[in-house]
């Protein structure tokens, strides 16, 4: 067999941006995560500890997503080319990373201060610069009574505070659909964008003031520069749909 050039980090040996991204992510974060065992799903005690916390399932699921770095804060979205800016919308001082949202933002610090957990948080963040890793190391510490709430266990409180921060601080908040004013129609648009292929699609839907369907459209696009341009195309397609059904 003749020698050939191969990229060992993808299954087919072909270079892809996605595989290089995963490689860089692992280089920057994976080793640290493995070191504290927060990401080793087979052996880490963190998952057993997490699922045994005395908090509602939605809080455990949020913490589980946080430990996997799957929180849509601006820093994470910008890193994945899904957002053009990464600055924290609350303090506008730093990048809105997971660590910033949960621990380093001024608002987060105030909450930890009120809960009497500021020293523990500061110690975890001093030890681990990555927010995900700091959260893992906090939850790996033995359960004890919370400093200011003796009826509450410390790790339950940390998990609940992390979940509470989901509201208002994390980049994307989902809002339910709201009706338009009487005698008006409402247009909703969205775009799906794949940064590797630079392609994707848009969809648009028009509903009248009681929420009943009026019209919908979908389109595909190629060779689009970024996610913001894809959103702009979605809006353009939506306005074309509005015009085609005789609304203005
Ligand atoms: Zn901030």
UniProtKB/TrEMBL annotation:
<feature type="domain" description="RNase H type-1">
    <location>
        <begin position="188"/>
        <end position="246"/>
    </location>
</feature>
<protein>
    <recommendedName>
        <fullName>Reverse transcriptase zinc-binding domain-containing protein</fullName>
    </recommendedName>
</protein>
<dbReference type="GO" id="GO:0003676">
    <property type="term" value="F:nucleic acid binding"/>
</dbReference>
<dbReference type="InterPro" id="IPR052929">
    <property type="entry name" value="RNase_H-like_EbsB-rel"/>
</dbReference>
<dbReference type="Pfam" id="PF13456">
    <property type="entry name" value="RVT_3"/>
</dbReference>
<feature type="domain" description="Reverse transcriptase zinc-binding">
    <location>
        <begin position="36"/>
        <end position="112"/>
    </location>
</feature>
<dbReference type="GO" id="GO:0004523">
    <property type="term" value="F:RNA-DNA hybrid ribonuclease activity"/>
</dbReference>
<dbReference type="InterPro" id="IPR026960">
    <property type="entry name" value="RVT-Znf"/>
</dbReference>
<dbReference type="Pfam" id="PF13966">
    <property type="entry name" value="zf-RVT"/>
</dbReference>
<dbReference type="InterPro" id="IPR002156">
    <property type="entry name" value="RNaseH_domain"/>
</dbReference>
